[in-house]
């Protein structure tokens, strides 16, 4: 399940010779700072906020740190530059788990992540280590720390498979999912509004849930049911310390734009070209990653031009110098701009989600403002500003958490998140296909 072999467990300590009348507990070593055997640190934040760097930095201050990635795209093999996986030389010898382990064409759900992550975390804890969960996929982390998971509810009925449920309503052979979506619209129009018509897997799971429990999916994710079951970490098997690395929105926007340019220079186009398929479906597997679909029109024309003109590339990478065509140059510029815009919108969605988890679901996120570190030019996550403004505060929080400090409480970060409008949004929001409307809405935030 992990590419990196777990460090060898230390040899067991020799059993002390028990003295007559001596309390065996007296021979045990004194309690260490980490008294909680289920302590887990969770590093969260929007894309580009420095989560991975912070996790590695924490390993310098706490023995036994191992990083467990909670990123829905980094779990796949391939697109290392586009998905911003931590290069081996930047991991500084810290074990990293759940990176590049899944075939790019396979669907990997929240439940899959939980089922992969829990044994890894338990193994780290069993060896006396400190698991640090790092990810921008908040639903993965939610599935890990919350006892309620939609996938489990859909399978509560014993002795009846998914195809049985769909067969009951005459949709077991609907491979394209069109009939399933229409059926969902009839049963639960509110749920249908909030899911893409091409998301066949989730549509079928909603129908299965209704067939097995009689409950409407829209009821489960709103009101008291959502508040009581979905997303609260209070009943988690782990004791979690949540660190939220953040920065002012305009600072993150600028950094995201710069990072995309760096990715292009580092070989992003080659990566996307290697998995490009003109008939690909962009709603499953690794091709869902932001930065794949955006280049579809460019590669469609670029590769056609190569075949038609029988051109053989004279250099090892695809750059603007290889394009040599005004139309291709224009398409490439448009694709890069769209990648930057979509990534900035992702940042907004992630920050809104974190705000809600903190305010409405009691996650007690410790907000760390990295704005000053990002404003240093060039942006550097290894200098004094990063250490003083990010690493040191997080180190102090984790130390207090591991020592069992019951006074540890998160700061109110609502003033840093762009107002309370995001906090009042529902747990799930309506899917809008009109691109112009979506862009106008998000850019207005």
Topology of helices and strands:
Layout: E1 39-45, H1 51-59, E2 65-69, E3 96-97, H2 110-126, E4 130-134, H3 138-145, H4 150-153, H5 162-168, H6 178-187, H7 189-193, H8 200-213, H9 217-220, H10 223-229, E5 239-246, H11 249-265, H12 268-275, H13 296-309, H14 320-323, H15 326-360, E6 366-369, H16 371-375, H17 384-402, H18 435-443
Parallel strand pairs: 1-4, 1-5, 2-3, 2-4, 5-6
Helix pairs in contact: 2-3, 5-8, 6-8, 11-15, 13-15
Describe the overall structure.
Mean pLDDT is 76; it is low at 1-35, 153-176 and 410-445. This protein has helices at residues 51-59, 110-126, 138-145, 150-153, 162-168, 178-187, 189-193, 200-213, 217-220, 223-229, 249-265, 268-275, 296-309, 320-323, 326-360, 371-375, 384-402, 435-443, and strands at 39-45, 65-69, 96-97, 130-134, 239-246, 366-369. It has a six-stranded parallel sheet, sandwiched between helices. It contains 18 helices and six strands. It is an alpha/beta fold and 445 residues long. The radius of gyration is 24 Å and the shape is globular.
